[in-house]
Amino acid sequence: MQANSTNLRTQREYIPTLRESTVTRSNTSQNDQLKQMILKLKSEQVSDQELVDILRRISDFALESEENLKYVLKQDVISTVNLLYTTTQNKFIKSTCVNIIEVIQKLEVKEEEQEDCKEMGLSLLTMLLSSNVNSSNIGKKNLIVLMESNANSVSGLLSIGILDQAAEALNNFSIF
Questions:
Q1: For 69-99, what is each residue's pLDDT tens digit?
Q2: 146 neighbors 124 (Cβ within 8 angstroms)
């Protein structure tokens, strides 16, 4: 009787471990899918409809959990989407890109810590200092939202050298 009790206890202890490994495999699979989506975004051989579908799936992925959001930020999706924004002529794709950046930014601000703020700030700073006027405006708008919604964001931006990078960009800017 005691052997059966021990086996039952061992089985119960094993079940959560099995569930955890299934979740880990699932997350790894999702992360791999995100990487594939990012690669497709960078590809020039993707139809406009497929680009829109990929952008929507990335947005859905980021909305699923805090862990997914952090993974999206780690994969520098904002820069990839910004690049797509600057290279496409399709207004719907441009609009979708702006929406993705705003969704990720708002989620990130909601969940953020100072280190996460640095990552977001760096991506938005890159957009702000872009030579593309529309990209720069999006970066500016989202940096303002970031600073207004979180007091820690200003110190995070200062710690990544926003002032130095802005000064350097102005030095490199030529009117003539």
A1: 888 888 878 888 888 888 888 888 888 888 8
A2: yes
DSSP annotation string for 28-65: HHHHHHHHHHHHHHH-SS--HHHHHHHHHHHHHHHHH-
The whole-model pTM stands at: 0.51
Packing angle of the helix pair 133-149, 77-87 (nearest 10 deg):
150
CATH number of the structural domain spanning residue 124? 1.25.10
Count the domains in the chain.
Answer: 1
Q: Whole-angstrom Cα distance, residue 24 to residue 140?
A: 37
Residue 122 confidence (pLDDT)? 76
Task: List the one residue out of 40, 68, 71 whose CA is nearest residue 53.
Answer: 40
* Range(s) of the domain holding residue 14: 2-172
For residue 20, CA distances in Å to 1, 25, 50 come to: 30, 9, 33
Do residues 37 and 58 lie in contact, with contact meaning Cβ atoms separated by under 8 Å?
Answer: yes
